[in-house]
Amino acid sequence: MAKNNTEIADTVAKAIAGNRQATERLTDLYYQTVFRMVYYRTSSKSDAEDLTQEIFMQMVKYLPRLKDKNRFRPWLFRIALNKVYDFHRKKQLLTFFGSISDNIQDEASDNTRDQIGTPADELMRKEFWRQFRQLGDSLPRQEREVFLLRFADEQKIKEISLILKKSESTVKTHLYRALKKFRQNSELRNMLKGELG
Amino acid sequence: MNTAYNHLNEDQLIQLIIDPDDLPHSVRNHLDGCTRCQTEKIQFEQELAAFGRMAKTFAPTSGQKIYPSQQASGRFWSMTPFLTGWRRPILAGGLTIILLICGVFSWQMSMNSSVDTSKMPTIAEIIDEQLIVTDVIPSEDSHLTEIIQQFVHDTNGYLEDEFVEFVAPFEFDQNSV
Fold first, then answer.
1. In whole angstroms, how far apart are CA B96 and each of A104, B86, B87, B103?
2. CB atoms within 10 A of CB A40
3. Which of A55, A91, A127, B141 is deepest in the core (most CB within 10 A)?
4. Number of other residues whose CB lies within 10 A of the CB of residue A94
5. Is the ipTM of this structure higher than 0.85?
6. Any CB–CB contact under 8 A between A25 and chain B?
7. CA A158 to chain centre
8. What 8-state DSSP symbol labels residue A100?
9. Which residues of B touch A115 (CB under 8 A)?
10. Cα–Cα distance between A52 and A3 in angstroms, integer?
11. Secondary structure in 3-state letters for A165-184
């Protein structure tokens, strides 16, 4: 893992110096991770694809400003989160003026069309995203963000504190509250237990 | 030793998941020897791991990946796929010529318009001229003034008094002396 981190830091240093291949390597490494991260927060494949493109455009643009090459991952996630927040702000504004309808349910079912699986798998997938959204809705923004970063995006506490620019103790407090609510969500927990067999 | 008292409660279990180092030493010691608490902790960790794994599995994969470097360099030309190779300089040259022609044409137009406007009468002058014309037209329409004008134009200035004397002779008033 340490070697992997060193390799990534070297690649980041080369990308900062203007090496195109290094930039493409970083894009390869993090593209799907960032795409998934955006998808968890937008519930729309097409929006997640567009935003991921924009995030990597910004990455290339602002990479020379990155001071610590060892902090590339939290830096990239911070760009991604800011993009997602911007997206939601614009969407809220457009929904308010009636330009678009806020129909996540249709979007989510549309996303599953390209997934191949048995009807039982499809049912499970739909149920999981329903529960996922329900949990997200039940949590305040900070708690939701910390929970998703920790357990869906698999970030460590220290990385989360860098991404959100909050102290580690604040992150832990938010995570504690979120986990407490997660423990109370018996429906989701039963589904997860069923998955474990 | 592992009594119900010492078992990890809900809060301690959550803290254990967040950061085991935040728990007191006694609680950690209990966990090392308590299979029940260990099982509970493992189950909770597995639930959270399953949450992350299912999210990853059920999330769609991105169908398209355009490298930012490619996107930045070819954004305009990707919109115009027919403009490749030798067509690009021709298009650029054509656009430049069109811009030059437009520039010269607009410059000439502006020069012409600036000369004309300096010679053109102002609105105030036009109004004054119209007023003069309206003054003249009624005097031309009147027949009486036409006759008087004939006399005035035909005779010299000193005959005007004789004419006036003829039309309206001067009467000497003795009482006024």
1. 49, 16, 14, 10
2. 21
3. A55
4. 13
5. yes
6. no
7. 17
8. S
9. 58, 60
10. 27
11. CCCHHHHHHHHHHHHHHHHH
Q: Which long-range contacts (CB under 8 A, 24 or more apart) does A84-93 make?
A: A84/A38, A84/A41, A84/A42, A84/A51, A87/A42, A87/A47, A87/A51, A88/A41
- For residue A152, list chain B residues with Cβ-Cβ distance below 8 A: 51-52, 55-56
The distance from CA A88 to its chain's CA centroid, rounded to whole angstroms, is 14
Closest alpha carbon to A48 in A73, A83, A78: A83
* Phi, psi angle pair for A173, to nearest 5°: -60, -45
Please give the single-letter amino acid code of residue B60. P
Higher pLDDT, B82 or B100: B100
pLDDT of residue B62: 83
Residues of A in contact with B47 (CB under 8 A): 189, 192-193, 196
Q: What's the rounded Cα separation, in Å, for the pair A42 and A36?
A: 10
B21 CB within 8 Å of a chain A CB: no
| Domains observed in chain A | 1-93 (1.10.1740.10), 100-197 (1.10.10.10)
Residue whose pair of structure tokens reads 């911070």 in the numeric block: A78
Residue that wins the pLDDT comparison between B59 and A120:
B59
| pTM for the model | 0.66
Spatial neighbors of A165 by CB under 8 A, at least 6 apart, are A78
pLDDT at B86 over 60: yes
- The candidate with the shortest Cα–Cα distance to B71, out of A13, A58, A78, A79, is A58
Coil, helix or strand for B44? helix
Inter-chain CB pairs, A–B, below 8 Å: 91
Nearest chain B Cα distance for residue A85, angstroms: 20
pLDDT band for B149, please (50, 70, 90 cuts).
Answer: low
DSSP B21: G
